[in-house]
Amino acid sequence: MIKILTMKIKRFVNSLTTQAARSLAAICFASNMAVVQASPAIQSTAKPGHKPAQTNCVPLGSWIIPGAGQAAYADVIDRAAGHSVVLLGETHVNADHHRWQLQVLAAMHAVRPDMVIGFEMFPRRVQSVLDQWVAGELDEKAFLAASEWDRVWNTDPELYLPLFHFARMNRIPMVALNIEPRLRHLVSEKGFHGVPVEQREGLTRPAEPSQAYLDFLMPIYKQHDRKDKKAGEIGFDDPDFRRFYAGQQLWDRAMAQILHQVLATAENGKKPLVVGVMGSGHVVHGYGVPHQLHDLGVKDIATLLPWDTNKSCKQLVAGVADAVFGVLPHISDPLAEPRYQRLGIRFEMARGGALVLQVEKGSIAEASGLQDADVILEMAGVTLQTTDDVINIVKRHAPGTWLPLKVKRNDREMEIIARFPAVKP
Q: Which helix (H) or strand (E) holds 34?
């Protein structure tokens, strides 16, 4: 019965023609599913004697105060809207996370229409494009092209467009929070003071990380390929680890500075409600952006996170966020052809090709053996001259086929094969 109801609602959502209507229907879909899934008729299928990791500690459609318990929706929104800054986390590819963000933005806007929304997805150099979008001067295609979405963020824009439309429909200023990937790469490579002042995009030195933050980042760092390190060699004083967290901190600092700037430059002393939309890793436990905001003198912060219903309850501890909301986990459809082919790199055109600034964990690029600082000279025999060359070749590449890459690593050229997974029958 649940599956039938879910399919009917999904078909209804997909049948709608406007983006705004789909967004509103998606919110209703999430709310309806909360009622269905809360039914006591749903029983655990765990085998006797087996103790799986406890999940569903945040029921779908419910707000939980970590360490305290369930909270009323209106109370969470009222408390959050009373702060100077509200940070909304996300997993970038989870559509339910973005539906939740839209719902929270709409609820807070009803309480505080004096809102400004900052987005991690845009580098600050495209701020004028965001202003044009909110003013209604660009359509979707022109906006995505002018903001260089494919190059900078390279994630399905349909996940984010409802948020952008909400801002435009309500004339809410949108603010670009991010910096160029190249700057993060330079700081990770040379340290903050190793980068000339004129190349720092106005950033000030990040506040020193807490030991708790370093403890949090270490397992993430160890997940990367460290073939040159023997067991036990990786420690907090490891130069590579220090460069790794320096890059993370710079990212946090950059976003915190822009949020602080919006508050500091408010006209007539009337400060708006400043909302930051960003990856949850920048929000959890107050380690990232909140820590940098505190260093800048902004302490009136609320942190809200979406919480996948299959997430381990061990992670739901006091302080992880001010409140969390139960959402559906992201599940890839094995029968669907990928709508947005992704190699999984952050890059810029330099050194005669596409200079890899970052290889994403779990990506096709990582599986192929691409590394940070590699220069991709050719793709499928085509010499790369512009950003669009890279984007267009990857986007039109067929699932289940191989993409040969001519790569320069240090002073040596080599061929690497990127294998794009096939659509399962």
A: helix 19-37
Tell me the per-residue pLDDT of 16-60, one tens digit each, with 9 for 90 and over.
433 433 443 343 333 333 332 332 322 333 444 445 567 789 999
DSSP-derived 3-state class of residue 315: helix
What share of the chain in percent tops pLDDT 70?
A: 82
Integer Cα distance of 113 and 105 in angstroms: 10
Strands 402-409 and 115-123: unpaired
Residue type, 187: V
CA separation (Å) from 37 to 56, 286, 399?
11, 31, 35
Residues 6 or more apart whose CB falls under 8 angstroms from that of 175 comprise 116, 117, 118, 119, 127, 130, 258, 259, 262
Whole-angstrom distance, CA of residue 34 vs CA of residue 99 = 14
Query: Tokens 């708790």 correspond to what residue?
Result: 212
Helix axes 161-169, 95-111, angle to 10 degrees: 20
Distance CA(99)–CA(251), nearest Å, equals 25
List the 323-327 sheet strands across, edge first: 69-71, 63-65, 323-327, 301-308, 85-88, 273-277, 115-123, 174-178
The DSSP bridge pattern shows strands 273-277 and 115-123 to be parallel
Tokens encoding 339 = 């709508």
Query: Which two three-digit tokens encode residue 368?
Result: 């192929």
Distance CA 374, CA 101 (A): 36
CB neighbours of residue 11 within 10 Å = 9
8's enclosing H/E stretch is helix 2-15
Sign of CA dihedral 64, 68, 69, 70: negative
Q: Extract the tokens encoding 90.
A: 């996300």
Mean pLDDT of 312-337: 85
Cβ contact 164:174 at 8 Å: yes
Residue keyed to tokens 């030991």: 211
